[in-house]
Amino acid sequence: MFKKKNAIPETAGILAPATRVTSVLGSGISWKGAINGSGGVRVEGAFDGDINLRGMLVIGQTGRVTCEHVRANVVIVAGALRGDITAEKVEIRSTGRVWGDVVTTAFSTEEGAFLRGQIRMEESVEPGLPAEAEAEPGEETGLQEVSEED
Question: Does 70 reside within a domain?
Fold first, then answer.
């Protein structure tokens, strides 16, 4: 007699950090460095450096990114990106310009989008890595090896 109508789950309407923008680099701002971690980032200004995210990267129409290799779960380009991309999903909007190779599982473009590079579709990709990821063998870690023959 008194049944609940289709109750909306408490989490409905709350997006996971990987699917929403949590930080913005505004237009008129130039930044050099590294962006690492979890969450979504929107770039409307100029960024030069490394990007390695567990989340979404949105390059807005006024955004200009120069990065050797962008790694993120989702990359949406409406501005300009110079560098390779590895992401689960890549979208280039009509105003987007990309100079670099793309490795992804899902790719879409709008009419007018520009890509100078190759697209490689994979069944799965490993996008952004946590900032605390261990160094690969042979990479500098800042630690010295100690031998007992001193």
Answer: yes
